Amino acid sequence: MLENDTSKERYIELNMGPQHPSTHGVLRLKLLLDGETVKKVEPVIGYLHRNAEKICELDFYCDALIYFDRMDYVGAMNMEVGYLEAAEKLLNIEPPERVLWIRTIMAELNRIASHLVWAGAFGLDLGMLTPFFYVFEQREKVLDLFTEICGSRQETNYMSIGGVYQDFNDKIIYKIKEFTKHFPKTLEEVYNLFVKNDVFISRTKNIGILEPEVALDYGVTGPMLRASGVPYDVRKAEPYLVYDKLNFDIPISKRKDVLARFIVRFEEMRQSVKIINQAIDKIPDGPYFNPKAKKSLMVRLRGEGDVYARTESTKGEFGVYMVGDGSVKPYRVHVRSPSFKNLSVLPYLSRDVLIADMVAISGSIDLVFGEVDR
Amino acid sequence: MAYEVKEEKSKDGRKVMRIERDHLLELLKDMKNDGFDSLSLLTCVDYRDRIEVVYHLTNSKTEEMLVVKSETRDSRMPSVTSLYESANWDEREQYDMMGVVFEGHPNLKRILLPEGWVGHPLRKDYDLSKVQYVNMDDEGNDYVSFDPGDGW
Amino acid sequence: MNLLLRIADILSILGHYPSFILAYIIETLIVIIFAVVVIAGMVFFFRKYMARVQMRLGPNRVGKGGVLQVMADGLKLIQKESILPEGRDDLAYKIAPILIFFGLIMGFIFIPYGPLAWFGYLTVSHSDVSLIIIFALLAIMPIGEVLSGISSNNKYAVLGALRGVAKDISFEVPMMLSILAVVMMASVKVSDPLNINGVVVAQSIPFAILEPLGFFIFLISMAARASYSPFDMGESDSELVTGNTTEYSGLRFGLFYLGLFGTIFLGSMLISTIYLGGYYGPFTNYLGFIWLLIKTLVLVVISLTIWLSMPRVRIDKFVNFGWKYLLPLSFINLIITGIIIFGGIA
Description:
- By secondary structure, chain A is α+β, with helices and mostly antiparallel strands.
- Chain A has helices at residues 52-58, 65-69, 76-91, 97-125, 130-150, 170-195, 198-204, 212-217, 223-227, 234-237, 258-282, 295-298, 338-343, 346-349, 355-364, 369-373; strands at residues 12-16, 28-34, 37-44, 159-160, 163-164, 304-312, 317-325, 330-336, 353-354.
- Chain A is globular.
- Chain A starts with 11 loop residues before the first strand and ends with a helix.
- Chain B is α/β, with parallel strands linked by helices.
- Chain B folds into two domains: 5-107, NADH:ubiquinone oxidoreductase Nqo5 subunit (Beta Polymerase, domain 2, 2-Layer Sandwich), CATH 3.30.460.80; 113-152, no CATH class.
- Chain B is built from two helices and nine strands; from the N terminus they run ββαββββαβββ.
- In chain B, the strands form three sheets. Chain B has a five-stranded mixed beta sheet. Chain B has a two-stranded parallel ribbon with strand order 6-7. A two-stranded antiparallel sheet of chain B has the order 8-9.
- Chain C has 13 helices and two strands; from the N terminus they run ααααββααααααααα.
- Chain C has helices spanning 3-10, 16-53, 69-79, 90-109, 130-138, 140-151, 155-189, 196-201, 207-210, 212-226, 250-274, 284-309, 315-342, and strands at residues 115-116, 120-121.
- Chain C is globular.
- The chains are: A alpha+beta, B alpha/beta, C mainly alpha.
- Chain A binds chain B through residues 15, 45-46, 49, 51, 53-54, 57, 89-90, 213-214, 216-219, 230, 232, 236-238, 304-310, 317, 319, 321, 323, 331-332, 334, 336, 340-341, 344, 373-374, and chain B through 10-12, 14, 37-41, 43, 45-46, 54, 56, 58, 60, 63, 65, 67, 84-86, 88-90, 93, 97, 111-114, 121-122, 126, 140.
C-alpha cells in the first residue's frame, strides 16, 4: 500500500525512540506521518535483548531465577512464580502448602505495585504529572514490604525452587494487613483524580478500540484482552498456586478502548486487595521450603520431559515452556512474554490515529522492555 | 481426515498432537474451526539433528489448551501467519533465534537481533565465544562487525 | 506625580531633555529587572508549590530552603555549552529565543502598574494605544516559536511549531474579539479606551462581572498563550520530546524557559488589569501596585494548579473548541456588550 505510493513526499518519517520520553524504556517506533496523523507504525525492538533463554540453558535450574526477576522488573514476583511453576513441575518438587499461600500474597502485592507504576506512567503519557507521585508513594509502601520480607525492592529473588527464601512472621503479616487496610482509600482517590477529569476522559474514550476477535488473533492477553470483553484469566482458567481456594472476580469491560484498560487495571487492584485479605487470614502453618530442594541439594536437581506453565502475570499470560534432558541444566527454556504479544498489536491499533492517541495507546499496553526483549 | 495424528500426553498432562510438517496447516485450520482461536505460544527446540516446533493453542471459550508438535530436519516450516496473526512476530523471533525459515511468512526478518547478526543464538551449535559488535551506519541502520574498535 | 518625574527630578541638574531620556532608560531597566526577578521568583515558587502538591520536598539544598536554586540553575544554564544542531537555519535559530524574550519583556513595559506610596505611578510607557501595542507584542512570541521550530532541522520541532501555530490561530481571534468588547465597554466611561490605563480607570465595576463570558474566553486564551498543561500540545514532552525547543540547550533554552513562566505572569497581570480592575482596591493611591500584585499572584496560583492537575488536550480537540465554541461565544459576548451599552445599563 504505502510502499507503492508515488506521493511519498507528503509523508514525514519520524523515528521515535529508543531514547524518547514516552517509549517506556527502549521501544523504537518508526512512524510514517501525514501531518499529525499516523499512517504506519513499525516497532523496532531488541535494544534490551540479553537472550535470557540462552543464559538459562547454561545454568543450573536454581540459578535461572534471577534472570526472570530482570524480565518484568516491575512485576518480578510474578515472573518468579511463572518460572517456578514450570521448574517445579519439571523437577517433580512439591512446595509445601504454606509456600503457595505466601507466593500468592507476594504475587498479588506485586500486581498492585505494577499496576500503580503503569497508572503513573500512563498519566505522564497524557501530560498528567501529579498522579505519578501519588501512585509511586503507594508503590513505595509495597516495595517497603518487599524489603522487609526479602531484603530487596524490585528484583527480589525471593522465591526458590520448592520454597521461599524467608518465612512470614507476625510483624510482616501485621504490616501487610495495615497496608491493605489503608490502600483502598488512596486507590479511590487516585482513581477519581483520573476519571473525574473531563480532559482525561476525552483523551481515552473511544481511542484505540480493540475488537475481541482481533485481540485473540494477535495473542493479546491480560488486562488488554479483558478490556476487550473476553473473560480470560489464567488464574481462573487454569488455577495455579492457591487461586482456586480464593474468592475473587475477573473484571472485564465491554468498552474495548483505552479507558476500558484503565478501568480494568484499577478494578484488578481492588480484586488483588481482596485476594490478599483472604489469603493472609487463611495462611496455614508449616515449613517454608521443601527439604528435597534445600540449598545443598539444589544444584543436583534433574528434570526430564517438557512442561508448559502459564501464569497470569501483571501484563498478561506469562508462559514458561521448559524442556529437560535429564541433566542438571534445562535443555530449552522458552518464555512467552505477554508484553511482546501485546506490543505486536500496536501497528494494528495505531493506523490513522493522531500522534497523541498513538502515545496513549502505546501507554495503555503496559510495556516493560525487560520482558519484551528478554 | 486426510492426515495422521499421534496423540500423547505431555509431562504436565496436556494433550499433545504430533503431526508431519506437510499436514500441519490442515490440522491447525481444523483446530481453529474447533474453537482454538488463539495461538498462545510458538517455540522451537533444537535437538541437533532435528528441530521440534511446538504450538500451544488456547480456546478462549472453554479455556482448554492443546499442544501441537511437529519437526523439521532442514530448518524449514510452513508459516501459520495465515491462520493466526500472532504467529507473525513469534515466527520472526524463532527465525531470529533458531534459524527456522517459515515459508510463506510476509516479513521474515530478524526481530530482536540486528540484521546481519551471524548465527542463531539458541541453536546448540552456536559459538558463544565469538563476540559481535553492533554499530549504526550513517543511514541509521544497524550493522554487525567483529572489530571492537569499529565505529569509535 | 509618577516615578518617571521623580527620577527626572533627581537628575534635573543634567538639563531637561537628558534627564528625561536618562529617567526613561532607568525606569525601563527597573521594569526589566523587576520582570526577571519576578520570573525567577515564580520559577522557585512553582517548584516549591509543585513539590507540595506532589508530596515532595522540592529544591532544598542551595541556600535557605532552596531559595538560591533558581540562581544556581540560571548560572548553570549560562555557562553550559550551547549545542548547535547541524543543518540549522543559523539566523532564525539564534534569533528565535531572543524574539520570545523580547516580546515578553516589552509586554511588561506597557502594563499600568498603578501607584505605590511615595513613588507615585509606576507605569513606564504612556501611549494612547497601549492595549493594541501590548497584544501586538504578545503576537511576536508565536513568531519566535515558529522560527525555532522550522530552523532547528528536527522533525519534532517542526511538528511542535505546527501545533503551536494551529493552537495560536484558534484562540487569538476570540481573544481579540473579547478585548474588543472590553474596549467598547470602556469607551462609555473614558475618552481613551485603547489605552490600557484607560481600561483600568473605566472599571469602577470590574469587567469580569460585567462580561463574564469575555473574562472566560480571555482566561482560556491566556492559558493557551502561556502553553502550560492542558494547552502544552506545542511542546508536549511525552509525544514530541519538547516540541520546538527540542534542539535548544544552554542559555537559549533558558530564555524559552523564562518565556514560559514570564508569559504566565504577564498573562495573569493582563487578566487582572483588563478584567479585575487592575490596581484598583482600597487605598488605591498608596497601595495600587500591591493590589495588582495580589490579584496577579492569585491568578498565578490558579494557573499553576491547573497546570499540575490537567492532562494535555489533543490538538484537534482544542482547535475545534477554539473555532466552534470560543469564536461564537466571543461574538455573543460582543452582542451582549452592545446591548448593555445601548441599553444604558453600564
